[in-house]
Design brief:
Blueprint (H helix, E strand, L loop, with lengths): L1 E5 L8 H10 L3 E6 L10 E5 L12 H25 L6 E5 L17 E4 L23 H8 L1 H6 L5 E4 L2 H6 L2 H4 L2 E3 L16 E2 L8 E2 L4 E8 L6 H14 L4 E7 L13 H10 L8 E5 L3 H9 L3 E4 L8 H8 L4 E4 L2 H6 L7 E3 L4 H13 L1 H18 L2 H14 L12
Parallel strand pairs: 1-2, 1-4, 2-3, 4-5, 5-6, 6-7, 10-11, 10-13, 11-12, 13-14, 14-15
Antiparallel strand pairs: 8-9
Length: 415
Protein backbone atom coordinates (compact mmCIF):
# COMPACT_ATOMS: atom_id res chain seq x y z
CA UNK A 1 0.00 0.00 0.00
CA UNK A 2 1.06 3.60 -0.60
CA UNK A 3 0.61 5.61 2.59
CA UNK A 4 1.07 9.35 3.01
CA UNK A 5 1.50 10.68 6.54
CA UNK A 6 1.26 14.40 7.26
CA UNK A 7 2.50 16.23 10.37
CA UNK A 8 4.42 19.49 10.53
CA UNK A 9 6.74 18.03 13.21
CA UNK A 10 7.48 14.48 12.04
CA UNK A 11 6.79 11.92 13.46
CA UNK A 12 4.33 13.53 15.90
CA UNK A 13 1.70 11.07 17.07
CA UNK A 14 2.72 8.55 14.40
CA UNK A 15 6.10 7.56 15.85
CA UNK A 16 5.19 3.95 16.58
CA UNK A 17 2.76 3.40 13.71
CA UNK A 18 5.14 4.42 10.93
CA UNK A 19 7.96 2.33 12.42
CA UNK A 20 5.72 -0.74 12.50
CA UNK A 21 4.46 -0.16 8.96
CA UNK A 22 7.96 0.53 7.68
CA UNK A 23 9.27 -2.66 9.26
CA UNK A 24 6.74 -4.70 7.27
CA UNK A 25 8.74 -4.01 4.13
CA UNK A 26 5.64 -4.16 1.92
CA UNK A 27 4.48 -0.55 1.88
CA UNK A 28 5.63 2.66 0.24
CA UNK A 29 5.47 5.30 2.95
CA UNK A 30 6.00 9.04 2.49
CA UNK A 31 5.90 11.49 5.39
CA UNK A 32 5.15 15.13 4.53
CA UNK A 33 6.50 17.54 7.15
CA UNK A 34 7.97 20.96 7.81
CA UNK A 35 10.73 19.46 9.96
CA UNK A 36 13.95 19.80 8.00
CA UNK A 37 16.00 17.45 10.18
CA UNK A 38 13.35 14.88 10.98
CA UNK A 39 14.39 11.52 12.42
CA UNK A 40 14.81 8.72 9.92
CA UNK A 41 12.87 5.46 10.00
CA UNK A 42 13.33 2.30 7.98
CA UNK A 43 11.00 2.19 5.03
CA UNK A 44 9.81 5.80 5.45
CA UNK A 45 10.74 8.65 3.09
CA UNK A 46 10.35 12.16 4.46
CA UNK A 47 9.47 15.07 2.19
CA UNK A 48 9.82 18.60 3.51
CA UNK A 49 7.37 21.29 2.49
CA UNK A 50 7.61 24.99 3.25
CA UNK A 51 4.67 27.01 4.42
CA UNK A 52 3.48 29.35 1.68
CA UNK A 53 2.58 32.21 4.01
CA UNK A 54 2.88 33.26 7.65
CA UNK A 55 0.63 35.79 9.33
CA UNK A 56 2.20 39.07 10.34
CA UNK A 57 2.62 39.67 14.08
CA UNK A 58 0.06 42.46 13.75
CA UNK A 59 -2.45 40.28 11.90
CA UNK A 60 -6.05 40.40 13.07
CA UNK A 61 -6.29 38.10 16.08
CA UNK A 62 -9.56 36.45 15.12
CA UNK A 63 -8.23 35.29 11.76
CA UNK A 64 -4.51 34.79 12.49
CA UNK A 65 -4.87 31.05 13.11
CA UNK A 66 -6.62 30.55 9.79
CA UNK A 67 -4.11 32.74 7.96
CA UNK A 68 -1.25 30.55 9.18
CA UNK A 69 -3.22 27.37 8.50
CA UNK A 70 -3.97 28.51 4.95
CA UNK A 71 -0.26 29.11 4.36
CA UNK A 72 0.56 25.64 5.67
CA UNK A 73 -2.26 24.12 3.65
CA UNK A 74 -1.17 25.66 0.38
CA UNK A 75 2.47 24.78 1.02
CA UNK A 76 1.53 21.18 1.79
CA UNK A 77 -0.81 20.76 -1.17
CA UNK A 78 1.85 22.20 -3.48
CA UNK A 79 4.25 19.50 -2.26
CA UNK A 80 1.47 16.91 -2.69
CA UNK A 81 0.96 17.94 -6.31
CA UNK A 82 4.69 17.39 -6.92
CA UNK A 83 4.52 13.95 -5.31
CA UNK A 84 1.60 12.95 -7.51
CA UNK A 85 3.28 14.33 -10.62
CA UNK A 86 6.38 12.29 -9.76
CA UNK A 87 4.33 9.09 -9.57
CA UNK A 88 3.35 8.81 -5.91
CA UNK A 89 -0.43 8.76 -5.55
CA UNK A 90 -1.30 7.55 -2.04
CA UNK A 91 -3.88 4.86 -1.36
CA UNK A 92 -4.62 6.60 1.95
CA UNK A 93 -3.61 9.80 3.73
CA UNK A 94 -3.18 9.93 7.51
CA UNK A 95 -2.35 13.20 9.20
CA UNK A 96 -2.87 15.85 11.87
CA UNK A 97 -5.40 18.51 10.90
CA UNK A 98 -4.39 21.05 13.55
CA UNK A 99 -2.03 23.15 11.44
CA UNK A 100 -4.19 23.16 8.33
CA UNK A 101 -1.86 21.03 6.22
CA UNK A 102 -4.55 18.81 4.68
CA UNK A 103 -7.18 21.52 4.20
CA UNK A 104 -6.83 21.60 0.40
CA UNK A 105 -5.98 17.94 -0.25
CA UNK A 106 -9.39 17.17 -1.76
CA UNK A 107 -8.52 19.43 -4.67
CA UNK A 108 -5.77 16.97 -5.63
CA UNK A 109 -7.07 13.70 -4.16
CA UNK A 110 -10.86 13.84 -4.50
CA UNK A 111 -11.36 10.09 -3.99
CA UNK A 112 -8.47 9.10 -1.71
CA UNK A 113 -9.50 8.17 1.84
CA UNK A 114 -8.17 10.50 4.55
CA UNK A 115 -7.90 9.89 8.29
CA UNK A 116 -7.43 13.11 10.27
CA UNK A 117 -6.05 13.48 13.80
CA UNK A 118 -8.35 15.83 15.73
CA UNK A 119 -6.44 16.76 18.85
CA UNK A 120 -8.16 19.69 20.51
CA UNK A 121 -11.19 21.96 20.25
CA UNK A 122 -10.78 25.32 21.95
CA UNK A 123 -13.22 26.78 24.45
CA UNK A 124 -13.21 28.92 27.58
CA UNK A 125 -14.97 26.06 29.35
CA UNK A 126 -13.51 22.75 30.50
CA UNK A 127 -9.92 23.32 29.38
CA UNK A 128 -6.92 25.30 30.64
CA UNK A 129 -8.38 28.66 29.57
CA UNK A 130 -10.47 29.88 32.48
CA UNK A 131 -9.40 27.00 34.73
CA UNK A 132 -7.20 29.03 37.08
CA UNK A 133 -9.07 31.81 38.95
CA UNK A 134 -5.74 33.64 39.21
CA UNK A 135 -5.78 34.04 35.42
CA UNK A 136 -9.29 35.22 34.52
CA UNK A 137 -10.25 35.18 30.85
CA UNK A 138 -10.58 38.41 28.94
CA UNK A 139 -13.81 39.54 27.29
CA UNK A 140 -12.27 38.65 23.94
CA UNK A 141 -11.21 35.11 24.93
CA UNK A 142 -14.39 33.29 23.78
CA UNK A 143 -14.08 34.82 20.31
CA UNK A 144 -10.35 34.14 20.06
CA UNK A 145 -10.87 30.53 21.15
CA UNK A 146 -13.59 30.00 18.59
CA UNK A 147 -11.39 31.64 15.96
CA UNK A 148 -8.83 28.88 16.61
CA UNK A 149 -11.48 26.30 15.74
CA UNK A 150 -11.84 27.33 12.11
CA UNK A 151 -9.24 24.72 11.16
CA UNK A 152 -10.99 21.62 12.57
CA UNK A 153 -14.34 23.01 11.45
CA UNK A 154 -13.08 23.15 7.88
CA UNK A 155 -11.23 19.84 8.02
CA UNK A 156 -14.03 17.68 9.39
CA UNK A 157 -15.45 17.74 5.85
CA UNK A 158 -12.06 16.97 4.32
CA UNK A 159 -11.54 13.68 6.17
CA UNK A 160 -13.41 10.41 5.79
CA UNK A 161 -12.64 9.40 9.36
CA UNK A 162 -11.43 11.45 12.31
CA UNK A 163 -9.32 10.21 15.19
CA UNK A 164 -8.80 11.38 18.78
CA UNK A 165 -6.58 9.63 21.33
CA UNK A 166 -8.90 9.98 24.35
CA UNK A 167 -12.62 10.31 25.01
CA UNK A 168 -12.02 13.61 26.79
CA UNK A 169 -10.46 15.08 23.65
CA UNK A 170 -13.17 13.65 21.40
CA UNK A 171 -15.92 15.04 23.60
CA UNK A 172 -14.55 18.57 23.37
CA UNK A 173 -15.52 18.63 19.71
CA UNK A 174 -19.10 19.47 18.69
CA UNK A 175 -21.56 16.58 18.94
CA UNK A 176 -21.90 16.66 15.15
CA UNK A 177 -18.26 15.48 14.93
CA UNK A 178 -18.61 12.51 17.28
CA UNK A 179 -19.91 9.86 14.91
CA UNK A 180 -16.97 10.50 12.63
CA UNK A 181 -14.29 10.28 15.37
CA UNK A 182 -12.87 6.98 16.51
CA UNK A 183 -11.07 7.01 19.85
CA UNK A 184 -7.80 5.15 20.21
CA UNK A 185 -4.53 6.19 21.80
CA UNK A 186 -1.32 6.42 19.77
CA UNK A 187 -0.07 3.48 21.83
CA UNK A 188 2.46 2.89 24.60
CA UNK A 189 5.34 0.46 24.13
CA UNK A 190 4.83 -1.43 27.37
CA UNK A 191 7.29 -4.06 26.10
CA UNK A 192 10.04 -1.43 26.31
CA UNK A 193 8.65 0.71 29.13
CA UNK A 194 8.63 -1.38 32.27
CA UNK A 195 10.01 -1.36 35.83
CA UNK A 196 13.78 -1.76 36.10
CA UNK A 197 15.24 -2.42 39.54
CA UNK A 198 18.79 -1.99 38.21
CA UNK A 199 18.24 1.55 36.88
CA UNK A 200 20.51 4.29 38.18
CA UNK A 201 20.97 8.01 37.66
CA UNK A 202 24.24 9.87 38.19
CA UNK A 203 24.12 13.50 39.32
CA UNK A 204 27.01 15.92 39.57
CA UNK A 205 26.19 16.97 43.13
CA UNK A 206 25.86 13.42 44.43
CA UNK A 207 28.94 11.26 44.95
CA UNK A 208 27.23 8.05 43.86
CA UNK A 209 24.48 7.00 41.44
CA UNK A 210 20.91 7.21 42.72
CA UNK A 211 18.88 4.00 42.51
CA UNK A 212 15.41 2.78 43.40
CA UNK A 213 16.72 2.22 46.93
CA UNK A 214 17.00 5.99 47.41
CA UNK A 215 14.16 8.34 48.29
CA UNK A 216 13.50 10.04 44.96
CA UNK A 217 10.68 12.34 43.88
CA UNK A 218 10.35 13.09 40.16
CA UNK A 219 8.53 15.70 38.09
CA UNK A 220 8.50 15.79 34.31
CA UNK A 221 7.06 18.03 31.59
CA UNK A 222 8.29 18.90 28.11
CA UNK A 223 8.52 22.46 29.37
CA UNK A 224 8.15 23.72 32.93
CA UNK A 225 4.98 25.77 32.56
CA UNK A 226 1.73 26.57 34.31
CA UNK A 227 -0.44 24.36 32.05
CA UNK A 228 1.57 21.39 33.35
CA UNK A 229 1.46 22.64 36.93
CA UNK A 230 5.11 23.55 37.46
CA UNK A 231 4.18 26.48 39.69
CA UNK A 232 2.08 24.26 41.96
CA UNK A 233 4.85 21.66 42.08
CA UNK A 234 7.37 24.29 43.19
CA UNK A 235 5.01 25.49 45.90
CA UNK A 236 4.86 21.92 47.21
CA UNK A 237 8.64 21.39 47.26
CA UNK A 238 9.33 23.16 50.59
CA UNK A 239 6.70 21.04 52.37
CA UNK A 240 8.13 17.82 50.90
CA UNK A 241 11.69 18.73 51.80
CA UNK A 242 10.78 19.74 55.35
CA UNK A 243 9.00 16.45 56.01
CA UNK A 244 11.52 14.23 54.19
CA UNK A 245 15.07 15.52 54.79
CA UNK A 246 16.68 12.69 52.78
CA UNK A 247 14.49 13.04 49.69
CA UNK A 248 16.04 14.16 46.41
CA UNK A 249 13.78 15.78 43.85
CA UNK A 250 14.60 15.38 40.14
CA UNK A 251 12.98 17.68 37.57
CA UNK A 252 12.95 17.05 33.81
CA UNK A 253 11.83 19.78 31.42
CA UNK A 254 12.82 22.80 29.39
CA UNK A 255 12.36 26.45 30.29
CA UNK A 256 10.05 27.44 27.44
CA UNK A 257 6.23 27.25 27.26
CA UNK A 258 4.60 24.70 24.96
CA UNK A 259 1.05 25.66 25.90
CA UNK A 260 -0.52 28.86 27.15
CA UNK A 261 1.20 32.14 27.91
CA UNK A 262 4.73 32.68 29.13
CA UNK A 263 5.66 34.17 32.49
CA UNK A 264 6.37 37.90 32.42
CA UNK A 265 9.22 37.44 34.87
CA UNK A 266 12.63 38.13 33.23
CA UNK A 267 13.79 34.68 34.38
CA UNK A 268 10.69 32.96 33.02
CA UNK A 269 8.50 30.77 35.19
CA UNK A 270 11.52 29.22 36.86
CA UNK A 271 12.70 32.66 37.87
CA UNK A 272 9.21 33.62 39.01
CA UNK A 273 8.90 30.57 41.25
CA UNK A 274 12.41 30.96 42.61
CA UNK A 275 11.48 34.49 43.67
CA UNK A 276 8.32 33.19 45.34
CA UNK A 277 9.54 30.09 47.18
CA UNK A 278 13.30 29.93 46.61
CA UNK A 279 14.11 31.03 50.16
CA UNK A 280 12.20 27.99 51.49
CA UNK A 281 13.97 25.41 49.30
CA UNK A 282 17.07 23.31 49.94
CA UNK A 283 18.63 23.72 46.50
CA UNK A 284 21.20 21.02 47.17
CA UNK A 285 18.40 18.41 47.06
CA UNK A 286 16.50 19.85 44.08
CA UNK A 287 18.02 18.83 40.74
CA UNK A 288 17.02 20.36 37.40
CA UNK A 289 18.06 18.00 34.60
CA UNK A 290 16.69 19.96 31.64
CA UNK A 291 15.43 18.07 28.59
CA UNK A 292 17.19 14.71 28.68
CA UNK A 293 17.57 11.82 26.19
CA UNK A 294 14.72 9.32 26.21
CA UNK A 295 16.77 6.54 27.83
CA UNK A 296 17.83 8.90 30.63
CA UNK A 297 14.23 9.94 31.19
CA UNK A 298 13.24 6.28 31.51
CA UNK A 299 15.87 5.67 34.18
CA UNK A 300 14.78 8.72 36.14
CA UNK A 301 11.22 7.39 36.29
CA UNK A 302 12.41 3.86 37.05
CA UNK A 303 14.25 4.97 40.23
CA UNK A 304 11.39 7.21 41.35
CA UNK A 305 9.78 6.50 44.71
CA UNK A 306 6.98 8.91 43.86
CA UNK A 307 6.34 10.61 40.54
CA UNK A 308 4.33 13.85 40.29
CA UNK A 309 2.22 14.56 37.21
CA UNK A 310 0.31 17.82 37.17
CA UNK A 311 -1.78 19.29 34.41
CA UNK A 312 -4.68 21.61 33.89
CA UNK A 313 -7.53 19.99 31.92
CA UNK A 314 -5.67 19.51 28.66
CA UNK A 315 -4.26 16.92 26.28
CA UNK A 316 -2.91 14.00 28.30
CA UNK A 317 0.89 13.76 28.25
CA UNK A 318 2.52 10.60 26.93
CA UNK A 319 4.72 10.80 30.05
CA UNK A 320 1.81 9.96 32.36
CA UNK A 321 1.01 6.70 30.58
CA UNK A 322 4.70 5.92 30.11
CA UNK A 323 5.36 6.43 33.82
CA UNK A 324 2.39 4.21 34.65
CA UNK A 325 3.81 1.55 32.30
CA UNK A 326 7.08 1.71 34.23
CA UNK A 327 5.24 1.00 37.47
CA UNK A 328 5.63 4.44 39.03
CA UNK A 329 3.52 5.42 42.01
CA UNK A 330 2.05 8.66 40.70
CA UNK A 331 0.46 11.61 42.44
CA UNK A 332 -1.49 13.50 39.79
CA UNK A 333 -3.90 16.40 39.50
CA UNK A 334 -7.57 15.50 39.82
CA UNK A 335 -8.83 16.72 36.45
CA UNK A 336 -11.02 15.03 33.85
CA UNK A 337 -8.38 13.92 31.31
CA UNK A 338 -6.30 12.34 34.09
CA UNK A 339 -9.34 10.62 35.59
CA UNK A 340 -9.95 8.94 32.23
CA UNK A 341 -6.58 7.20 32.52
CA UNK A 342 -6.19 6.84 36.28
CA UNK A 343 -8.45 5.84 39.19
CA UNK A 344 -7.76 7.31 42.62
CA UNK A 345 -6.31 4.84 45.13
CA UNK A 346 -6.27 2.14 42.44
CA UNK A 347 -3.86 3.13 39.69
CA UNK A 348 -2.74 6.48 41.07
CA UNK A 349 -3.32 9.12 43.70
CA UNK A 350 -5.29 12.23 42.72
CA UNK A 351 -5.04 15.63 44.40
CA UNK A 352 -6.48 19.10 43.91
CA UNK A 353 -4.42 20.98 41.30
CA UNK A 354 -4.70 24.17 43.36
CA UNK A 355 -3.61 22.70 46.73
CA UNK A 356 0.19 22.34 46.90
CA UNK A 357 0.02 21.42 50.59
CA UNK A 358 -2.30 18.50 49.80
CA UNK A 359 0.02 17.51 46.95
CA UNK A 360 2.99 17.56 49.30
CA UNK A 361 1.13 15.63 52.01
CA UNK A 362 0.26 12.86 49.56
CA UNK A 363 3.83 12.64 48.25
CA UNK A 364 5.19 12.56 51.82
CA UNK A 365 2.80 9.73 52.68
CA UNK A 366 4.15 7.68 49.76
CA UNK A 367 7.76 8.44 50.72
CA UNK A 368 7.14 7.46 54.34
CA UNK A 369 5.75 4.05 53.41
CA UNK A 370 6.60 3.10 49.81
CA UNK A 371 5.75 -0.57 50.30
CA UNK A 372 2.21 0.40 51.29
CA UNK A 373 1.73 2.04 47.90
CA UNK A 374 3.66 -0.37 45.70
CA UNK A 375 0.44 -2.08 44.62
CA UNK A 376 -0.67 1.16 42.97
CA UNK A 377 2.37 1.16 40.69
CA UNK A 378 1.76 -2.50 39.79
CA UNK A 379 -1.92 -1.78 39.02
CA UNK A 380 -1.00 1.28 36.96
CA UNK A 381 1.24 -0.78 34.71
CA UNK A 382 -1.40 -3.46 34.28
CA UNK A 383 -3.99 -0.86 33.34
CA UNK A 384 -1.74 0.62 30.65
CA UNK A 385 -0.93 -2.84 29.29
CA UNK A 386 -4.62 -3.67 29.03
CA UNK A 387 -5.83 -0.29 27.73
CA UNK A 388 -3.03 1.56 25.93
CA UNK A 389 -0.48 -1.01 24.78
CA UNK A 390 0.67 -0.27 21.25
CA UNK A 391 1.01 -3.80 19.86
CA UNK A 392 -1.98 -5.53 21.42
CA UNK A 393 -4.57 -2.74 21.74
CA UNK A 394 -3.87 0.41 19.71
CA UNK A 395 -2.12 -0.90 16.59
CA UNK A 396 -4.87 -3.42 15.73
CA UNK A 397 -7.52 -0.70 16.01
CA UNK A 398 -5.59 1.73 13.82
CA UNK A 399 -5.08 -0.98 11.21
CA UNK A 400 -8.79 -1.85 11.29
CA UNK A 401 -9.65 1.79 10.65
CA UNK A 402 -7.25 1.94 7.71
CA UNK A 403 -8.53 -1.32 6.23
CA UNK A 404 -12.14 -0.11 6.40
CA UNK A 405 -11.27 2.66 3.93
CA UNK A 406 -9.15 0.86 1.32
CA UNK A 407 -9.93 -1.94 -1.16
CA UNK A 408 -9.78 -5.44 0.32
CA UNK A 409 -6.79 -6.26 -1.87
CA UNK A 410 -4.76 -3.59 -0.05
CA UNK A 411 -5.83 -4.54 3.46
CA UNK A 412 -3.06 -4.87 6.05
CA UNK A 413 -3.20 -8.08 8.14
CA UNK A 414 -4.43 -7.10 11.60
CA UNK A 415 -1.81 -8.03 14.20
Amino acid sequence: MKLLFVHQNMPGQYRELIQWLGAQGTHEIVFLTQRAKAPTFKGVRSVVYKTHHKADEKAYGLSRTWENAAGNGFGAVTALRTLVADGFTPDIVIGHVGWGEMTFFREVLPDTPIIGFFEYFYSVHGGPVGFDPASPVSDHAPYLMHGHNVVPLMNIEVVDVAHSPTMWQRNRFPASFHDKIYVCHDGIRTDKLKPNKTASVSLGRVGRPLTAQDEVVTFMARNLETTRGYHQFMRAVPYIQKARPDARILVIGGNDASYGGKSKHPGGLRGEMEAEVGHLIDWDRLHFLGQVPYESYKQVIQISTCHIYLTMPFVLSWSLLESMAMGAVIVASDVAPVREAMAHNETGLLVDFFDPEALAAQVVEVLASPKSFAHIGHAARQHVVETYDFHTVCLPEHIRQINALVPAALAIPVP
